Amino acid sequence: MRTSFPHLRRDFAASLVVFLVALPLCVGVAVASGVPAELGLVTGIVGGIVTGMMRGSSLQVSGPAAGLTVLVLEAVRQFGLPVLGVLVLATGLLQLLMGALKLGRWFRAISLSVVEGMLAGIGLVLIAGQLYSVADVKAPASGLEKIAGLPGALAQATGNTGALASLALGAGTVAVLVLWKRLPQRVRAVPGPLAAVGLATAATAAFALPVATVEVKGLLGAIQPPSLTSFGALADVGVLATIVAFTLIASAESLFSAAAVDRLHDGPRTRYDKELMAQGAGNTVCGVLGALPMTAVIVRSSANVQAGAKTKASRVMHGVWLLLFAALLPATLALIPIPALAGVLLHAGWKLIPFRGIASLWRGHRGEALILVVTAVSIVTVNMFEGVLIGLALSIVKTAWEASHIKLEVIDKGAGPIQAYLSGNATFLRLPKILDSLESLPPDRPVELDLTGLHHLDHACRTALENWAERLPHVSTSLDRPGTAPADPEPVRATTP
């Protein structure tokens, strides 16, 4: 008998796997972001049910992401938790607008080096911040202060019994996550993050470890829709910059994740504009509820594909399981030790740093590798928004420099004029090289400069070439239009007696 849901069994099984992967990550991202743990679950629920039901990418799963943790933490510290809903709501509306204007595909034009540098910078700051949580020490605000203060924080922790227990628990969580892939396949049926947090929770209870655990307010108590007065924060330039950063990072990460997920399955391809609108709808709802911003998350998405999901029903059902857990078992969260969640995010932050990618880029494309590293370092030393802008600016400059490729070929037969042929794109970026090459030609010989091999000649180069020719006596010049090649092109003739 033919059923209306031929893939329901596979989607149901996949939804349970994704739920088990998402649960500790939702809680961990929320705690690391400085907001109630329940708000991470709210974002996961919205990402599953609201975004999951919309068109775009059929198998991609959305929720709170480690990639936005640092930015959310800074925003909550600077503007307060009540303004978070305004930030996320504005982000969602911007994404909806961009999707409606069909700008989703343009995010694919962002340099991959900038995106990987952004994630690497986030990973570095995330690792530094979570090391303080593992050591049960308050973290400084800026990325540089976090890194600089790590030796002192770890030294301080060694003299405290509770801090040592916290360190041991966090280190054990990371060890479980690292070693989990090497265990037999039957054991690995349980997702690594869930197993690591579950073992840490059991160890905390069994040995009565003096470590901090998650504070629980209840799902309804944690939801804080933005008040009308909170919208007054939109007059703050810093708030507007944070909204732009949220939008740029969340959209880029989601659409790059969609491209990665498409390579994992043979099903329908992502429709980028609709996926951007789906993310916007989810963030709009999250903003109304005062929850965390969402992105598509590659960890959950790849787990969904690998578990055999065939349709979007799996991600919707995973949102339902998160909702049932938050509604029926909220007290369970209070048993989870914070060092275990910090260990999960330490592992996630480490995976955000593309060590192999940097080495590969350095061998083949050193300019791209430099952009990646500079973007990451800028995020650590300055802040998220300005770091991404620096990376984008470097990417544009590099592209402009490469687009202005110019070649000068000089033919000197010993008698008669020296023939010089310029080809490529003559722009102001390569003007010093062009003039240096021309001025190095023998001053006592006539020169014929042929420009018909140029595809582009900007105003600065044209003016400079005219001035160069005019400085030589008895010169007749004629600059042909670049890209045209008449049968007998008249070259620029620079003749000296």
Automatic annotation (TrEMBL):
InterPro entries: SLC26A/SulP_dom, SLC26A/SulP_fam
Subcellular compartments: Membrane
UniProt keyword annotation of Transmembrane helix present: yes
GO CC, any one term: membrane
Name of a matching Pfam family: Sulfate_transp
Topology class, membrane: Multi-pass membrane protein
Annotated ranges, domain SLC26A/SulP transporter: 8-375
Name this polypeptide is given: Transmembrane transport protein
Organism: Streptomyces zinciresistens K42
